[in-house]
Fold this protein.
Amino acid sequence: MSISADLTLVDSASLDVRTESASFARALHCFEPLVDGRWDQFVDKHQRSSIFHTSAWLEALHRTYGYDAVAYTSCLPGEALKNAVVFCRVESWLTGRRLVSLPFSDHCEPLVDDEHASEFIAQVVGQELRKKRWQYVECRPIQDLKVNGFRESKILYAFHQLDLRPELDVIFRGFHKDSIQRKIRRAEREGLGYNEGSGSALMREFYGLFELTRRRHNLPAPPLDWFENLSRCFGSALKIRIAYKGHLAIAAMITIKHRNTLVYKYGCSDSEFHKLGSMPFLYWRSIKDAKQEGLENLDLGRTDAGQQGLITFKNRWGAKQSVLNYLRFSVHPSTTHFLDMSKAGFKRRAAESVISYLPSRIISKIGHMLYPHVG
């Protein structure tokens, strides 16, 4: 059910948010993408849409964390969608109430013409802050976006994409000879096994390695329900990929296909077997599969700017690196909460230090309890 919304903005002196011109001064309409039949068709056709815009992603967020999705468009109810910005409502008694586009998503482009994107978002903020008084509103664009009143996030992410249009041998020659090509050949000499799919057995193997990897980095893992819901919602578009040494699972990743792009979303491994090249083996297998399906891009996702080793690893695949600069608007002095990933430095290191001393079962319970409040 669409709800028409009057978009007279609040006083710019109190909210410091306004449109730069009147060129996009039109009423926006709020709707629920998960129950509006126009949404899937719009996302399937839009050139800048990603897995994070899909109903599958929004449904997995709702099933796991209870987040409700809401979208805004200038199109009338019942009219085919030509533009939209999607958010999730995160309503936490622990970390506050906020509007995020989108939680646990690497990026989420406003699906609006570039020339109007900043005005469009400013209007949404003006409407929502008047009605709901959110702690803050957050956008996660890929492209650089300037919106009056929004602050750039304190933590930046590197973003990598690999062009899959060249011939496979050309792509391979673009890999770092020692760090990537040599390790792929090492994995082949070792005779590493491979399996893919979405069944419960593969999910258990993936999650065991994922918990091991998160523990290595002193971080709790998201609940198993999150990955199971992703698998149910995306169906055959999602693949769990496992590398084996003999019968032992030693590395795993989850990839999701959308339009002409394969998205690497999660990866994990047993560090005792890193020398065998298990992760490069899985990346290379994913690239070959994507080429066979005629896909044109590999989205390698975001990386915390402080993880220089992982950034270097992705660069050595010949991927193009850019910067993800998240934007937040708030009427409050602070746009963070105590579980915020943007709270880098001492507090984050202290939390990781405490986690390193806790038993695995306790860390798991902490993760299950806190993730819904992170958003």
